[in-house]
Records
---
Amino acid sequence: MSDQLLDQICEIVRQAGSIVLSAAADKEIKAKEGAANYVTKYDSKVQKYLVTELTRLLPDATFLGEEDGFSSHKISSGYTFIIDPIDGTTNFICDFMCSGICVGLALHGVMEIGVVYNPFRDELFSARRGQGSYLNGTLLRIHNRPLSEGVVNIDIAPYNPELRERAFAVSTAISYETMDIRDIGSAALGICYVACNRCVAYISHLLSTWDYAAASLILTEAGGVFTDLQGHALPLKAKTSLLASTETGLHQTLELICPILSQD
């Protein structure tokens, strides 16, 4: 797999960012299945652009994505693009300017390339397996900090009300051990913020593959680690909890939250 392929994917994702930035005030908001789950015409527009342009790069690749029927697709034994056109749609709707365009490329079920782009801040995170991860061309390396030396980003499960009490209990426990807690509203950017040392950990109680696939490679190539909330290794799969952190932060977090989760 060539460096040129990563560069080409990055350019396609940047161009997709231009579509997001061109969004009119009327984003044609629609509700999807589940609480607080929305989609706009730009989610579909960006995904169609990504599928078209990425197919030109790898015509035999399959796609797994959030919109337009791609969510039921499977990761193939060959190349699979895993895409989320706008991760953080609620942020996008509310002009919060914290949304990510995500493209991951897997081969035989193993992540090879990950790209996450926030067009509002012009921040492009990228990684190639074994070649490190970068933010706008600058190499990322995680500082192995404990929870007490950073901010923890915790998803409070807006799409899954049945998980919210558990999410609040975890947030309360973590809040006593860290500098502060946040919920920035984008799983992919939350993971990337661990990779670039803005956060010491990111916690989510339920994610889909396209929410975390691209960002997970960016995290691990920067020296971070991730598991599910029980501490189990995390292969690419449809639905999962996720903890992304430094080595030290991961062990501290699991010690704090496993007793809470065991009460369910």
---
Amino acid sequence: MSALLLDTHIWLWYAEGDAAQLPPASVRRLEATRREEGLLVSAISVWELGMQVAQGRIQLPIPLRDWVDQALAPPGLRLLPLDAAAAVESTSLPGALHGDPADRFLIASARTEGAVLATRDQHILQYGKAGFVRVLEL
């Protein structure tokens, strides 16, 4: 299997150990992939999470910068920087897709990295079912 790129909500639930959102089977899958192929977190997810914290939509137990440092610390988990290839790809994705810039960047990053995008976002899952990006529903 390819590396998994975590959608922002999957990363948050995984880092927080949120068993209500991420059942044990999903956590085991993520742990195995982290050890074998690696897990990717896009820098756009750091931005998206920060925006949600700033807007009061999400509360973290510690300051954002500290949370991000801890959430990216496990071996086998790698921050995927924003790059020109994914930026260009995000502006010309095939098929019909809503305009959420973070989702578009995540999809473009998965496509350019050859990664599978782990998500529960129904828009992204539908886009994956159409064959435009490889997805894993967790």
